[in-house]
Amino acid sequence: MAHGKHIYRVSVQWTGNKGSGTSGYREYGRDHLIRAGAKPDIPGSADPAFRGDAARWNPEDLLVAATSACHKLWYLHLCADAGVRVLSYMDDAVGAMADDPAGGRFTDIVLRPRVTIAAGGDAELAARLHHAAHEKCYIANSVNFPIRCEPVIDIESAVEPAER
Length: 164
Hints:
Shape: elongated
Oligomer: single chain
Largest sheet: 3 strands, antiparallel
Number of domains: 2
CATH architecture of the largest domain: 2-Layer Sandwich
InterPro entries: KH_dom-like_a/b, OsmC/Ohr_fam, OsmC/Ohrsf, OsmC_Ohr_Peroxiredoxin
Strand order of the largest sheet: 1-2-3
Protein name: Peroxiredoxin
Pfam families: OsmC
Structural class: alpha/beta
């Protein structure tokens, strides 16, 4: 694994000028495009509570997604190293944000990964590796609010798909 300083370059281009710029709070759109090299653009906006477009990603969505994805990547790495064969992984993560006159902030993120491991696998080890993944996650190590993980570990059924 590479060690040292890693640089990430992203551009965010505001596309919400409706003709008069920011002449008033209700006069401009919150839409933007997030770009990073040759990767597909991410259409962004504000949360609908802040006059954004619900069909686009908002910064809060992206923070929860980044947290979930970082945890998953570390978890899969640790499982591979430990001989736990993961067959599927689905996380229904939820982030909570408090908004008050002094400013908004995330209060917590709860990760709820549902993991299926191969038949005969060690479900207890698979569950414990979530703690280790959390300890290594770059995003979790960078935020100032709690991130909890409530994993569910399933073991692959011995029944062949054709027999179901």
